[in-house]
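[Meeting: bench + compute handoff]

Bench side (C.D.) handed over the final construct sequence. Compute side (W.E.) agreed to return the predicted structure before the next meeting so the bench team could plan truncations. Sequence as handed over:
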Amino acid sequence: MNEPPTWKLPPDASNWEADWKGSRRFQIRHWASLPFERKLDALEEMCDYAREAEQRRLRRNAVRP
């Protein structure tokens, strides 16, 4: 049976996530390993943040002449 992936780098690993491609690969693998419920929670949190940011932008623009 496969063990779940660990997201800690071993001490002897090269710094492979320091470049854009390595970082992107890490993010994709990490997201793919999340359970569905965690993905939904993250999506809801991102939507909440987007709504807040939009409201702040609208308030800021309403104050300007």
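W.E. noted at the follow-up: The mean pLDDT is 81. C.D. will use this when planning the next construct.
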